[in-house]
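Handoff note, outgoing to incoming analyst
You'll be picking up this chain. Sequence as last confirmed:
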Amino acid sequence: MKRLFSILAITGLMTFGNVQAQDADTTQVTAPETEQVVDTTATEEEAAVVATEENVVEEETTFTQGMKKRFIEGGPGFMGIVLICLILGLAIAIERIIYLNLSTTNTKKLISEVETALNSGGVNAAKEVARNTSGPVASIFYQGLDRYSHGLDSAEKSIVAYGGVQMGQLEKNVSWISLFIALAPMLGFMGTVIGMIEAFDQIQSAGSMEPSLVAGGIKVALLTTVFGLIVAIILQIFYNYITAKIDSIVNDMEDASISLVDMLSDYSKK
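Most recent structure output, in case you need it:
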C-alpha cells in the first residue's frame, strides 16, 4: 500500500512538473510573439500616419506645382505668347478698374449741390461746385454751365458733345482686352494643330503607330489649348465687370445731363 501511494505521489509530482515546464515554455514563446505583434502594429500605424501626412502635403501643393509643371511641359513658344496675353490683359483691366472706380461720383449729391449753388449764387457758384468735384459727371456739368452764357441750346450741345468725349475716356483700351480674349484661345488652338502635325510626322518617320511615340506631342498640343482657354476665361470675367461699370457710369452721366438741362431751363425763366 505504501509503495502504491509512493508511486502515485512520484507520478503526480512528475506530471505537475512537466505541466509547469510546458506552461513556462509557452509563456516564453508567446511573449516574444506578442511583442512582435505589438511592434508590427505600431509600425503599421506609424506608416499610416506618415502616408497621411504625405497625402496632405501633396494635396496642398498639387494645384500650384501641377500648373507650373504643365505650363513648362507646354513649351516656351506658344506658352510664352499666351502668358504675355494674360499679363497685358490683366494690366489693362486693373488700370481700367482703378480709373472707373475713381470716376464714380455720387450724382444725386452733386445735382443737389449744383442746384443749391445755382439758385443761391448763380452760374458762377454752380461752376465752382462742379470744378471742385472729380469725375466725368462733374466735368460735363462744368462744360454745360460754362457754355450757358451763349444760350441754353449751346449749353445743351456742349453737354452732349462733352458726354461723348467722357464716354470715350471710359472705354479707352477696353478693346485691347477683348483682343487678348480672342487671341489667347486662338494661339492655343494653333499650338494644338502644330503639335498634332509634329505627332503625325513622328508616326511617319517611325513607320508604325506606337502610343508612346506620339503621346508626348499630343499632350503638349492639348496643354496649349487648355492654357489659352484659361487665359480667355480670366480676362472675360474682368472684361464683363469693366463693361458693366462703364454702362453704370454712362447711365449716371445721361441722367445727370438731363437734370442739368432742366435746372438751366428753370434758371433761365427766372
